[in-house]
Please model this.
Amino acid sequence: MSKRILITGAASGIGRYVAEHLGKQGHEILLTDLDGERAQVEAEQLQQQGIRAQGLALNVADLASLGDFIARQPTIDVLINNAGVQYVERLDEYPLDKWQLLQDVLLNGPAMLTKAVLPAMREQNFGRIINIGSIHAQVASKYKSAYVSAKHGLIGLGKVLALETGDVDITVNTICPAYVKTPLVEAQIASQAKQHGITEQEVIDTIMLAPMPKKAFIGLDEIAHTVDFLMAGAARNITAQAIALDGGWTAQ
Model:
């Protein structure tokens, strides 16, 4: 059955790929992004493929506006909290404004968007909240204190919401991929090279892929497949989970 799906950070990277993947299955897609014009352009490209898609501007860090934004939309069946931002710096040098931005985009925004969509999901007795976390929701790396803290928080948020929605067919789960070759990760490679004083290829080989027995970036198709799995009616009892797509990283 067709679902109405809202994806944040959908103008590029993981969000854009998942939007197209789900749209081709007949779902209606709301692509939202801080860059509203880009979101509209991407939605138009999907429309040319016969996909029902709409591009909308949404700043998930503007917490006070999120409730009004959701109130203007039809009922959302699936919320995919995907919007991301990164800033790499040791904690004693970490700018306060960057710290707050990461908390708002990665944790506070998803929490408030979820808060806004839950009443309608409860009323229709169906909903899927899928957070795109990170392997850094389960492990840590140097110079990523704000990111790691927020992503760990997503798992905790999912556990609490799973308890609060246990009486209805709503699930809340967090997908935790290791490194995916997206614009955000490309920027991290350059930033980490600067921090560690090594080349970008050395960042890939000795930092990003070194902990992974499979030594490979995670594919966008792997994330989309996991979203499919969690959306299914047969996944109704899979909730409060952190699903690692990590090539064996967390087995060590």
